[in-house]
Amino acid sequence: MSEVNAGINAGINAGINAEANAAAGPGSNAVDGADGMTAVSLHGLSYRFKEHLAVTDLDLDVCTGEVFGLLGPNGAGKTTTIRVLTTLLPLQDGEVRVFGYDVRRDKMAVRRTLGYVPQQLSADAALTGRENVMLFARLFDVRRRDRKRQVDEALEVMGLEDAADRLASTYSGGMIRRLELAQALINRPRLLVLDEPTIGLDPIARGTVWERVEELRADTGMTVLVTTHYMDEADQMCDRIGLMHLGKLRAVGAPEDLKSALGPDASLEDVFRHHSGSTFDEGGGFSDVRSTRRTAHRLG
Length: 300
Ligand SMILES: Nc1ncnc2c1ncn2[C@@H]1O[C@H](COP(=O)(O)OP(=O)(O)OP(=O)(O)O)[C@@H](O)[C@H]1O
What we know:
Number of helices: 11
CATH class: Alpha Beta
Keywords: ATP-binding, Nucleotide-binding
Protein name: ABC-2 type transport system ATP-binding protein
CATH architecture: 3-Layer(aba) Sandwich
Number of strands: 10
Distance between the termini: 32 Å
InterPro entries: AAA+_ATPase, ABC_transporter-like_ATP-bd, ABC_transporter-like_CS, P-loop_NTPase
CATH superfamily: P-loop containing nucleotide triphosphate hydrolases
Domain ABC transporter: 40-271
Mean pLDDT: 84
Strand order of the largest sheet: 6-7-8-3-9-10
Shape: globular
Bound molecules: adenosine-5'-triphosphate
Helix content: 40-55%
Organism: Actinopolymorpha pittospori
Largest sheet: 6 strands, mixed
Radius of gyration: 19 Å
Order of helices and strands: HEEEHEEHEHHHEHEHEEHHH
C-alpha cells in the first residue's frame, strides 16, 4: 500500500468508526449496514418522471468492499437509480439505505459517506487541478489544517501531482476524469459512485482511470458503484454486475457466473439478450443517446 493510500485508508477507517459511534447514539435511524456487509440496499425502488416510469420495483444489495457495475443501454434507469441513492432525487417509492442510513430521513448522513462523479462535467476549466480539488475540500468542510495535505493526497492518488498547477482546460479527457475522481475522494468516502466514468475516453485513458479505481479499492477497501455502457470493462473490472433494461433489473451476479449459467462460450452480451429479450443497442430513445453523447463530447 502506498503512503498516500495508507493516509486515505486511515481516513476512511476513522470515518467508519465515527459513523459506527453515531449509529449507536440516540436519534440515529441506521438499522442495517451495521453488520459491515451491506453498503447499499435498494428495496422496491420505483421512480417516475411524470407519466414515465424510469425505474420499476428494483431490489438490489451492494456489498461492502465490492466493485459493483450497473450495466445497461441508454435510458435503462441507471442514472436515476444513482441519483436517488445519492439523495439528488427524492425517494418516491421503496426503501433505500446507504451504510444503514435511510436516504429519506438521514440525507446528510448518507451524503457524508459518499463520493460522486456525475456523468456531467464537474471540474471547472478556468481553475487549476489543485484549485478544483481545494474547492471541493472547502465544500465538504475538510478541516482547514488538513486541507492542503488531503488535497495533495487526492491529487497524488490520481497521478495528477505534476499537472496540479495547470489549468484544467489544458487537461486531456482522461486527466479530467481523474481530477473529478480526486474531487470525489476529498472527504474520504466509504462509497465511491461513478456514473459512466470512462465514456468518451480512448482505450488507454479508460485503462488508466480503471487502474486508479482498482488501486484505490485494493488499498482502502472502498466500495465502488459504477455505471457503464462498456460490457468489456464491466466484465473485467466488476466483482458483480446488475443488468438493467427499461427501468428493470434483469439479472445480478458475478460476470463469470452469469456467463457460465448460459453456456461455456457465452458473452455478457448474450446474457443481456437472454434476460432482456433484446440487444444492448436497443435501449432508450433519441434524448437518452443525445445526453450521453454530450458528455462524451465535453470530455473528448
Ligand atoms: N429529468 C428527466 N425528465 C424526464 N425523463 C427523464 C429524466 N431523466 C431521465 N428520464 C428518463 O428516464 C429514463 C431513465 O433514464 P436514465 O438517465 O436513468 O437512464 P440511464 O440508464 O442512466 O441512461 P444513460 O446511459 O443514457 O445515462 C429514460 O427513459 C429517460 O429518458
